[in-house]
Amino acid sequence: MGCFTFVKVMMILFNMLIFLAGATLLAMGIWVSVDGSSFLKVLGPFATNGMQFVNVGFFCIAIGAVLVLLGFMGCYGAQKESRCLLLLFFAVILIIFIAEVAAGVVALAYSSFAEGILKAWATTALKEQYGQDPVVTKIWNTTMTELHCCGFTNYTDFSDSYYYNHNSESYPPTCCVRANPCGPMYAQLSDIQGCFEQLLKILKKNANIVGGIAAGICGVEIAAMVVSMYLYCYLDKHAR
Predict the structure, then answer these.
(1) pTM for the whole thing?
(2) Over the range 156-168, which residues count as b (16 or more CB within 10 Å of their CB) and which as e?
């Protein structure tokens, strides 16, 4: 088996896996979006937390469609030795790679700006919707319970909020250590950290894992570009 044949077979097998993964994700996303009730029945005892799966149905469809398209272009292009599809495959992967690098650079350069936007959104949600909107309340309760935090910055995010004014000027239980109701004095003494700082701590603690995953994804993308360009150049050379 020559080098070209080996690379071609590997390209086909790799993209078949991408295609199948994308098709599975796409089918699941369509199922969740169109018939969420039956999907929740399948979850059985986990159905109480199942709505979060229904909410990401369209996201699954989008990601699945992209993977199916990439898998088809790579697999069919290698099988039929189509220079056009191989070049298109290379171009799409390159665009995704550049977009990921750009997103990473922007995230690092404008982290404080992003924090300001998140804080403005979170503060408004905590002031006006927490305790009134069941979805917002559940999301924040789950976040604060799991991360052992209070509010976005700290307990003061709830001061003069809907929840505060309608619960005898008290804070959510997670804002205090063994105090119920959680009054202003207990909240100040407890000094529970905000969820944003807690999330940053977790990310820093798992930076090696996050970095390894990011490096792995970039490595796969670079390998896919190298292989597709090799096949394209080989076919272009022998077509002359």
Answers:
(1) 0.58
(2) bbbbebbbbeeee
